[in-house]
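Quick illustration, no need to memorize.
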Amino acid sequence: MNWLASARVRTPYQSAVRLLQFAEAGPEDVLVDLGSGDGTIPNLAALVFGVKKAWGVETDEEGVSRSEEIARALGLTRERVEFVCGDMFSFGLEGFSVATVFQSEDAVEKLLGKLMRELVPGARVVSYLLPLGTMSPLRMVRPSKVAHPFYLYRAPVEFLDQAGSVRLLEEISGHAEGAEREWAEVSAVANR
């Protein structure tokens, strides 16, 4: 089990903004943040990026209450942003055009099948910190002044073969060394 599995880690505002830029979130999108913590990503998506509606799914009742409190203080109604206290593994993903994930390795492994089954073709998934197992991302970036990389996927997601997985790991480690570049992009799509 890694450190993220045992701790509640808040997504810094700067990282959340960059993540939403990377996802190209906008007025036509309905976004869900799986494990929304204090609601940073859904609240920013609704307030700054103007998504049609943002949802946050969180198991911690206190986190949900805090998220709702922040949303109301920002003037966001339930028509714009909504928080659900519940299990992200049982929350339906149909109808979402953007899903964001900042989870432990164990949680990401459990989410893979759900993301593949439930998201509509063309939906964007952005994972912060960890790739989605051996799924093939469209892009990986490590923005400057952001602690961890982002991985962009588009449903239906595809598995990397073994050579593609090795190449992705090599590219990730290379970008960890050169993280000063603002939006260094890496193509990690196998056999394209």
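The chain has a mean pLDDT of 82.
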